[in-house]
Amino acid sequence: MFSIFEGWVFMDLKQIDQYAKSIIVEAGKRIRNAFSYNLVIETKSNANDLVTNIDRETELFFIEQIKAFDPTHKILGEEGMGEKVESLDGVVWIIDPIDGTMNFVKQHRHFMISIGIFIDGIGKLGYIYDVMREDLFNAVAGEGAWYNASPLRKLQPVNIEESVIGINAHWVAPNRHIHHEKVIELVRKVRGTRSYGSAAMEIAFVVSGKLDAYVSMRLSPWDIAGGMIIAQEVGAIATNLHGEGFDFLHQDTFIIANPAIHQELLKKYIVPYDL
Fold first, then answer.
1. What residues in the chain have per-residue pLDDT under 50?
2. What share of the chain is helix, strand, coil (3-state, %, to 5)?
3. How far is CA 235 from CA 74, 146, 148, 175, 206, in A?
4. How far apart are CA 147 and CA 149, in angstroms?
């Protein structure tokens, strides 16, 4: 589908972008309408890891729409409804149909659709859609990022003392992942902390300057794929807790931060036991 000529690549990318936005909005309508009938709620890895019939139906909707657009495109989705994806060769859509399922079930808000579109391993298009607010964060690699129709500006420098950090309160207690004493130091030093229960939402808040960093001990490719592409366009730095990048095929630790505080967070406060 993609020509060696840049103009053709741009046109194809523009078509994919327009199509992706249209099916994201339609999926959002379907999810909002789903509150009018009973949800079927199941657990996955543990009692707090929920999946509903709407998660699965939404992922199937995306698969059907993407394959109708171009059957050569591959889909890596959270609910495993697509094909098995073992490489990012070609065009790959990495999809979380509902990021924040607990919030979806319990609060009927604070959940997102997250999609990243990769071409031969390079993130090209990123989307995070707040279903209930009908707000779209999106980016085209090399061209910028937007919140609905408004451009997102590059992140302005902040210091730790002025920062608001997205981090789960669990990590201030003794745990097997990071030095909790250093997290306590961080909590005392920063302006505030928040935890929203949706990785995509917290990433969206970092790229738009509403948070200055977000940390997680384990995220999957579909949690971060869309947000990573947006992050690049606003200057946010996203790595694992060792400061390394991602392969987008496996789970990993995660931090996204304003570039002024990313390294300080990793060196002083978010320190894994294996360092």
1. 1-8
2. 35, 25, 35
3. 28, 13, 19, 31, 10
4. 6
| Residue ranges of domains in the chain, CATH in brackets | 6-151 (3.30.540.10), 160-269 (3.40.190.80)
- What per-residue confidence (pLDDT) applies to 8? 41
**HSE-CB for 78 with a 13 A CA cutoff:** 30
How far, rounded to the nearest angstrom, does the alpha carbon of residue 247 sit from its chain's CA centroid? 15
Q: Which residues pair with 137 in a beta bridge?
A: 128, 147
Report the alpha-carbon distance of residue 154 to residue 127 in Å, rounded.
17
Output the pLDDT for position 49: 59
Q: Please write down the HEC assignment for all residues of 135-189.
A: EEEEEECCCEEEECCEECCCCCCCCHHHCEEECCHHHHCCCCCECHHHHHHHHHH
- Helices 199-207 and 221-234, packing angle to 10 deg: 0
| Distance (Å, whole) CA 99 – CA 129 | 10
Signed CA dihedral, 221, 223, 229, 234: sign only: negative
